[in-house]
Amino acid sequence: MTQTITDSEPALITPTAPAIKIKLSMSQAEDTADGKANKLPDPILAEVNLRCLIAAEQLKRYSDASKLPVDTRTAPPLNIGFGQQRALKALQTALDIHASGYHVFAAGENGLGKRTVISRLLQRIAVEQPTPDDWVYVHNFTDPRTPMALHLPAGQSILLQQQVNNLWQQAKKLLNQRFRSDHYQSKIEAIKNATHQKETHAYDVLNAEGKQYDLALTFRPFDNKAVFVHPSQLPIESISNKDPNNDSDEPNKSTENLKADAKLLSDKIQKTNTESKHSHNNNSYEAELNNFTQKNHMQKRLNQLTIALEQLEDEANDSIEALHHDIARRALQPLFTPIQESFSTNASVLEYLEAMFADMVTHVERIVNADDEEFVAAVLTTTPSRYSVNIMVSHKLNSGAPVVFEDLPTHLNLLGHVEQITQLGTVTTDVSMIRAGALHRANGGYLLLEASHVLEHPYAWQGLKRALQSRKIKLSSLEQMLTLTGSLSLSPTPVDLDVKVILLGEADLYYQLLELEPEFDAVFKVRADFHDDVVRTDEHELALVAKMADIINYAKLYPFDNSAQAALLEYLSLQAEDQDRLSLHSDLLIKLLHESNRHARLDNKTIVDVHHVTQAIADMDERSGYLRDLYWEELKNGQQLINTSGQAVGQVNALTVVSYADSEFGMPARLTAVIQPNIGAGDILDIERDVDLGGSLHAKGMLIMTSYLRALFSQHHALNFSASLAFEQSYAHIDGDSATVSEACALLSALADVPINQAYAITGSMNQLGEVQAVGGINAKIAGFFDACREQELTGQQGVIIPMANVKQLMLRDDIIEAVKSGIFHIYGVRTLSEALTLMTGLPIDTLNKKKRYRKDTLFGKVIKRLMLWDNNQDTEDTALDEAADKKSKKKKKRKAKKKREEKRRREKNKRIKQQDDIEQDDII
User: Fold this and answer.
1) Which Pfam families match (predicted)?
2) Which domains occur in the chain, in start order?
3) Catalytic residue ranges
């Protein structure tokens, strides 16, 4: 809880109150110095009363309901920029300049409706702006890790996506039909048969050459290996069935088996020769050697044939692949042609379609077989991610520029991100998982962000600043930035950025960013200040009624009649704390409209009147008054010591404002001053400050008051005293300088030993010249003391003393105004400390005599008198002390002299005794 002695505000020029009849209190009709009753008051006191008393007509400014619409249904049209012309002009300047860094920081208190005003203005402007391009991400067939960003005219991204999806469905169906047709199978068989015939012919030629050397080409039954053997080694079944020249079986041998047989022949030739040698033991050594040489020769010929057969097989595969590609081209080209014609003016889309066509032709076998994940439809889609068109942002044609507000401006939500999917422990991602951010959606238009929300999220501000400076939206992995890992992820190509960003925040945050972020001013070059209030004129009252009508229509509330409108305007003036100004806080107005509408509904009314508004204000006040009620309960029980009658020396009722969470109310606080004569040199102890319960503004007020008193009295007499000031029964933090006047009154009362009228409470700031300055929270302070007086019974003598500069800020409750009209409560406005002291003490303050000294019957004269009295008393006490010290010193000297005489007599006596003893000793001898 903070007890605020509310900060001083700029003084307002207020004309002198008109002469009115003064009702003097009994305490003012008494001679406070002599205690004699029935003595006429000092003329100065009467003149101050006349000059400072505030009339009831000055306590509140009422709205004339007759000048307002009969009800809100007949209200004038709303002016969006009402009261914020300065901010809107700054915003328009930023919108007209397309250079880098001309973004806007809209500064103003929360609840002013900054976002609503700016959004409506931008929407009006955006309608006339050209619609920005659509953006899509597609697969990069050259570098799959860097998906390509394509921009298309507004509305064409959806068309491209639909046509590509349809193309995929048609292409898959058509290719499956073509590759399962009889025509395709016959062409494949023709290629295979031609290749097989060539292989068979090659084997026949080689077999004929082997017969010249009495060698036969055969295929072993266990591995179908082609080898040359002597005809005698041929098995019968081999001769009959496996002869290469036999067309019954061998021509049906597959190309793959022939190729394998040719490769293995060289490994088995030596074994064949050895077996041949053992099987013909009767041959000579020369015949065996000759047979081995012949087999070696045929082995080389077989190796050569193997190479030729591999080339032949490669040619066959190439022919098959060429056939596949030719079929794919002829099947796909009619499907791609309409899409290419639709986007004939977009070179980047045509380039992508050509790359897609080439990729589908190249991988036609994998498409048809559907055995590869890259060519299978992705999750939640009907198209493989390889051929999907991921729309990042799409706009309707002629819809104007986008206006986007992002309420959760994280790094991902601002710049977009790449999602990932985990399947069986494997993390994967693709182009279809790229998600757009607020910058993508607002690209080509306007983006509104709450500054405090941006700063709450890690890396959000850094990402936003980088994007605005580079004018590109570059997606980056936040996980890598935070964890410093090197996990593989996509790196999409950046998107060109053209956007105006408007940050919304309070002025304090703006100053902090200027101080702590060196590049902030380079990015947000324009500041748009939103005002808290507006001058209260008939024109502005009508404009605020139009604002009420707009809110009522939007929320579908009952209409408000002119009496309710007047009450709302008076309440807004109270919130502005100025009779001549109206608060522009939209949140407060919206809340009051809804609650007033509730009371009308409960009252079975279809139109809201002044009674419903008054009840809503009372309900709001009651909800926030729990702490205040506790204080009043303590006041009733006597736990809070506040006197609203009688007189006391060095004791003042100071007006304060207590702030706790969203609750704020005024209350009096007892301020006391205690003097210690002849100790110190005018030192004043601020107890609140010394125990760390006083703020810097409160300390400043104390120092100003101290310097004023030193300058006031030090020229007349030395300040031979010290003093202490404290707020009694205050246990919370105290700040503000509005207690400066009350502190000066309490201190001067204690110095002069003059009582202060406890029926008055006072507030006000003061400068070093003794002039009273305006303070804040004046209405709550007056209401607080009035309620305290009512709790302890209104005597007709109570009142408050406030700075005259605050009179124009008075918007008091009607019951307080009635009390002032009835003469049972009084409100005074003072310009100087002397006027305040005159009202509080009933004495003239600083009247000078002919010698330019303060008169003895004035307050300042009594202060000088006491200072001199303390000095004289100090001199008398010093003289008495000196005389006592002299007496004590004389007594001490007498005692010392007597002691010396006694010591001398004792020595002389001892000397005589000794001499007598010596004479007697001589006689004996």
Assistant:
1) AAA_32, Lon_C, LonB_AAA-LID, LonC_helical
2) 65-83+531-630 (1.10.8.60), 103-127+395-515 (3.40.50.300), 133-230+288-393 (no CATH), 640-867 (3.30.230.10)
3) 738, 781
